[in-house]
């Protein structure tokens, strides 16, 4: 496992070394005063340019998530009810007051220091105007940093945005002028609204260079259990936009369900409600908290948050206390007219204003920081909605999958010899990858035993084996340092470690991955103890910290 971590670190180091040193954004023009005084300008200045066009374009775009068009003369991005199209991006492009999706992409390219010969300035959402090669969606698989073009039915070109990432069979984008906001949206690859992609740079995966410390990913059950779960990204301090149905009256159910939007059979979406669980109060659009839902209903004419759920997951919610919040969708039955609330999402804010959307992870837990670090790195995910299961035993399949993610989730096109691993299994690709690398051996015959619990020694042995196979660590062989042997023999249960795993345990001691425990006058390594998910997070986080220091 540690071995897998090492691979990830080296891969990241190679990737980073391939680009020039990071530098701060320098605006390419003289910004307006209202924009300079806004939080979006500071977010822009916080971006560090890597020199990689794809990564820099996405990171600049992310810095603007939450920006809302304003009235004439106001470029602060703080408009709410305005639909007049006045934005900093339109001001920059010379089209202030007009549709600004193309101006936003152009602005991002200039602030990312991308030459105009690579991405040209454009006032319209057409690939030729941006000067980028265009690929139809049917003939190209998008990557982070691509420009994405959209077309409504009957139109040749309609809208443009930037590809953020791909995950869970969905494509995520950053778009300007998306319901008057700059925001992150999600689509299926086959969405008829997508026309294709503009590719202006080498087709490489730059995921390791993309992302900001305050970028959160949250999973929602928007449809009360009747539809697909959705994943939404938001930036701390920016509205978390959750869709209301945007379809026209003559749109079909298929269009609604395909386009992502919220739907529930026989109902219409009436609005969104947020409840603070410490006192049961309900959030109103002016940021106040009402004791009774009916009062909030009355004051807001049924829709506590009409149109969109503008949720601000940051310290502004924490003036009184850091708490748990529940987001509800309000549905009106089309036949009876009655309203029903369904839970869309539950999450917590910790004392740092950080989102914690797992019900079984407390800020007081010893592993809280370790688990969150691994979640941020994308190496772990929950076992189900809102459940991380920190103390659940770690299976062989889970361990190999974490290592595979650390290696960048390499594509696998070769079979496995294990009879209990089928192509459709969620762990099939990681197991095939590990077997080809030579770090796995059958437990008995051709059996992998994916659900068997992993011991501490076995986990360390796998990580060590991977490190050696990848050329990132040397075999100890007969050259184990005397001082390291002396340390190992100081543990009462070192003899319990299987001989074939001793090198991995010694390596973990040498790198500081494990330290053992003290009981009375004796020290223990517990090599045969089952490893749980939180313990693995702690191991990996400790190792990454030591390696990156």
Rg on CA atoms, Å: 26 Å
Q: Provide the number of structural domains.
A: 3
- Described by the principal axes of the CA atoms, the overall outline is globular
Strands ordered across the widest β-sheet: 3-8-4-5-6-7
Give helix % range: 25-40%
- SS content category: alpha+beta
Parts with pLDDT < 50 across at least 5 consecutive residues: 1-20, 239-249, 255-261, 298-322
The description of the largest β-sheet is: 6 strands, antiparallel
* Termini gap: 20 Å
- Classify the beta-strand content into a percent band: 15-25%
Question: Helical element count?
Answer: 16
Total count of strands: 18
Q: Could you report the average pLDDT, rounded to the nearest whole number?
A: 77
In terms of topology, how is this protein built?
Layout (H helix, E strand, L loop, with lengths): L1 H16 L5 E2 L8 H4 L2 H7 L2 E2 L3 H10 L25 H6 L7 H11 L15 H4 L3 E3 L10 E4 L8 E9 L2 E9 L2 E8 L5 E5 L16 E6 L9 E6 L17 H6 L8 E10 L4 E3 L5 E2 L2 H7 L24 E10 L5 E11 L5 E2 L11 H9 L19 H11 L21 H10 L18 H14 L12 H8 L12 H10 L5 E3 L2 E3 L8 H16 L1
Helix pairs in contact: 1-11, 1-13, 1-16, 4-6, 10-16, 11-12, 13-15
What does this entry look like structurally?
The structure is a single chain. With 549 residues, the chain is of the alpha+beta class. The two termini are 20 Å apart. The chain is globular and about 75 Å long. It has three domains: 31-209, endopeptidase fold (from Nostoc punctiforme) (Alpha-Beta Complex); 215-245 and 253-356, no CATH class; 368-548, no CATH class. It is 27% helix and 18% strand. 44% of the residues are buried. It has helices spanning 2-17, 33-36, 39-45, 53-62, 88-93, 101-111, 127-130, 253-258, 293-299, 368-376, 396-406, 428-437, 456-469, 482-489, 502-511, 533-548, and strands at 23-24, 48-49, 134-136, 147-150, 159-167, 170-178, 181-188, 194-198, 215-220, 230-235, 267-276, 281-283, 289-290, 324-333, 339-349, 355-356, 517-519, 522-524. A six-stranded antiparallel β-sheet has the order 3-8-4-5-6-7. The chain has a six-stranded antiparallel β-sheet with strand order 13-12-11-14-15-16. It has 16 helices and 18 strands.
């Amino acid at each position: 496992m540690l071995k897998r971590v090492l691979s990830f670190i080296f891969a990241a180091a190679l990737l980073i070394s391939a680009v020039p040193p990071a530098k701060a954004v320098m605006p390419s023009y003289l910004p307006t005063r209202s924009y300079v005084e806004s939080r979006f300008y500071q977010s822009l200045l916080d971006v560090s340019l890597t020199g990689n066009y794809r990564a820099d374009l996405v990171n600049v775009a992310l810095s603007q998530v939450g920006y809302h068009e304003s009235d004439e003369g106001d470029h602060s991005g703080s408009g709410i009810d305005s639909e007049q199209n006045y934005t900093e991006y339109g001001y920059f492009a010379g089209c202030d007051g007009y549709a600004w999706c193309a101006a936003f992409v152009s602005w991002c390219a200039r602030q990312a220091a991308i030459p105009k010969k690579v991405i040209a300035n454009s006032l319209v959402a057409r690939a030729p105007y941006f000067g980028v090669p265009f690929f139809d969606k049917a003939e190209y698989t998008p990557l982070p940093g691509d420009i994405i073009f959209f077309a409504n039915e009957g139109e040749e070109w309609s809208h443009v945005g930037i590809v953020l990432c791909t995950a869970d069979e969905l494509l995520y984008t950053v778009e300007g002028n998306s319901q008057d906001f700059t925001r992150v949206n999600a689509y299926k690859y086959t969405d008829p609204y997508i026309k294709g992609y503009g590719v202006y740079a080498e087709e490489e995966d730059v995921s390791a260079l993309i992302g900001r410390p305050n970028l959160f990913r949250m999973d929602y059950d928007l449809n009360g259990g009747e539809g697909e779960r959705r994943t939404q990204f938001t930036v701390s301090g920016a509205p978390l936009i959750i869709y209301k149905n945007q379809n026209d009256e003559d749109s079909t159910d298929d269009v609604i369900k395909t386009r992502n939007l919220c739907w529930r059979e026989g109902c219409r979406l009436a609005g969104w409600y947020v409840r603070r669980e410490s006192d049961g109060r309900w959030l109103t659009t002016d940021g106040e908290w009402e004791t009774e839902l009916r009062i909030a209903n009355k004051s807001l004419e049924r829709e506590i948050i009409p149109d969109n759920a503008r949720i601000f997951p940051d310290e502004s919610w924490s003036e009184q206390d850091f708490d748990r919040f529940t987001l509800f969708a309000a549905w009106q039955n089309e036949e009876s007219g009655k309203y029903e609330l369904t839970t869309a999402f539950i999450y917590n804010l910790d004392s740092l204003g950080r989102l914690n959307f797992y019900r079984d992870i407390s800020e007081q837990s010893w592993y809280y920081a370790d688990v969150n670090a691994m979640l941020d790195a994308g190496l772990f995910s929950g076992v189900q909605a809102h459940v991380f299961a920190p103390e659940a035993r770690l299976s062989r399949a889970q361990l190999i999958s974490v290592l595979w993610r650390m290696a960048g989730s390499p594509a696998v096109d070769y079979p496995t010899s294990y009879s209990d691993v089928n192509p459709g299994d969620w762990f099939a690709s990681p197991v095939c990858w590990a077997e080809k690398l030579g770090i796995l051996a059958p437990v008995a015959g051709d059996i992998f035993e994916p659900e068997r619990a992993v011991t501490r020694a076995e986990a360390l042995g796998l990580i060590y084996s991977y490190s050696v196979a990848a050329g990132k660590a040397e075999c100890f062989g007969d050259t184990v340092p005397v001082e390291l042997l002396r340390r190992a023999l100081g543990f009462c249960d070192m003899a319990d470690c299987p001989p074939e795993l001793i090198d991995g345990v010694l390596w973990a001691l040498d790198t500081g991955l494990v330290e053992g425990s003290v009981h009375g006058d004796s020290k223990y390594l517990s090599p045969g103890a089952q490893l749980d998910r939180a313990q693995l997070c702690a191991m990996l986080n400790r190792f990454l910290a030591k390696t990156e220091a």
